Amino acid sequence: MVAGEEEKGRLVLLDFWVSPFAQRCRIALAEKGLAYESVEQELLGDKGELLLRSNPVHKKVPVLLHDGHAVCESLVILEHRGRLPPRGAAAPPRRPLGARAGAAFFGGEAFGFVDVALIPLTSWFYSYEEHGGFSVQQEFPRLAEWARRCGERESVAKILTKREEVLDFIGVLKKCYGVE
Questions:
Q1: pLDDT at position 83, please?
Q2: Alpha carbons 75 and 142: distance in angstroms, whole number
């Protein structure tokens, strides 16, 4: 039990705005239509007491607090989200891994578990391109097209961090760690 988070049914996501792992949880919760409170965590300085209490082993976001219990690690949170009752939109169906040729999403025609798990990583593509000197669109056109299709979903469009903001954040990280 995490002290101070005992309210029945309450969902609290310990979050960091640019974390692709936290973004996948926000997308999954939005797809299920679940209301939650996002509590932004400080990750570049001293970590907050709630995060340290909720995830004492790894001390990382995301952490979903549900009925006072901490659910750590983004893929575990996605699995847990599947057990939560929907409040609005239906949950995305879970599909077998592996996009079929011509399919819109990894599981076929429906946006599902693998799509939710992978789409937040695409907001970092621009930074990889800028720092790596290549084009995802040219090197991996099917992946780029899948990312575009996913980006048209309301949940993804609202939640995914803008690519320029990710690039700016990487600049902050480089300064913070003396890598410039």
A1: 64
A2: 24
Maximum alpha-carbon separation in the chain: 50
- The average pLDDT across 153-171 equals 96
pLDDT digits (tens, 9 = 90+) for 65-94: 998 899 999 999 998 876 655 554 444 444
Element containing residue 13 per DSSP (H, E): strand 11-15
pTM of the prediction? 0.84
DSSP state at residue 74: H
Q: How far apart are CA 22 and CA 74, in angstroms?
A: 7
Q: What is the CA radius of gyration of the chain?
A: 17
Cβ within 8 Å of residue 9, ≥6 positions away = 67
- DSSP string for residues in 93-119: PP--SSPPTT-SBTTBSS--HHHHHHG
The first and second tokens of residue 137, run together, are 């669109």
